[in-house]
Amino acid sequence: INDSDYGTSIYLRADAWKSVVSMENVATLAEFGKSFPTYQDFHIGATEKNGNLVVKSDGADAPDYYLASILKDNAGTPFMGHKHISQQTSFFYRSAASDKAAFKTAFSKWHKKYKSPAWDKLNYYIAGESNLLIDNLGSELILCQLEENNSITDGKIVLAEFTSYDKLRPVLQKLAQLSNQETNVSIDQYQGYDIYSVPIPELPSGLYGPFFTGFPRSYITYVAPYLVIANNSQLLQNYIVDYENQITWKQSPEYDSVLTNASSEAQLSLIVNLRKAQSGEETQVSKKYSDLTAKMEYITLQCRFAGSEAFPELTFHPKKRPTASKVLN
Q: Which of 22, 123, 158, 192 lies in the 20 to 30 Å Cα band around 225?
């Protein structure tokens, strides 16, 4: 690598991140890390006009990980779903591809070989109809980890781009009823939204792969264009309230334009809201680097897969300085 054009260059193995961020008890973050190269190079260029510090890679060997294989050579897309992301989100993970047909082919090929107890259980209840959950999947998958509070810890929500919900609705009804025969608490309504309770452990992992874990039971609804799956019934109700009352990223001046850069072709993205992430297991990051996190609003980590290479990119977004009017008020 010719790094003479850069002021600072960093070379490391992927496992070196463990000394920066402990991966114990942070399963989702650890799993996300598998999408990145074993050997990484990062280079610091000029600071952007808006004050963001961008650390880029010139490319390294792509890892042997299912998301990297499915997404390679299928450029990512700008994010347009800000109105679907609750302001309670602390960690936002996104996978997206521009060519939906190519994504569907690659995903289906991978899923046919994928072995999962959750998928087996799904087939046990609804047999071939389980394929509807895969066949109508779009090319965008999102996982949100929510800020912890007194009543909900490790709250997670999956948003899966999905078409033909009308076809899926009777299948979800059937699945909820058959899988809840002992408890009889299968289907509910909340503010006009169907809510299906499915006690199959790790259902999203069975559908979308090992990255989507942490769901002992799944609570499912549809908020177009996403199939929404939460790991807690109260969490799903809170999500619906935030969506209906527009307490989302779309109404947030810090987050209303994240990942909208049309020139970015990164297929994988992670956004960490450093203030929200100070609750729960991830506090170790904030405490360890309090001087850094105090000055930063959020961090973006992206990765683009092209051919046999992966191109990670890390961006630090500083907190906006308060204007005179904000200070006075």
A: 123
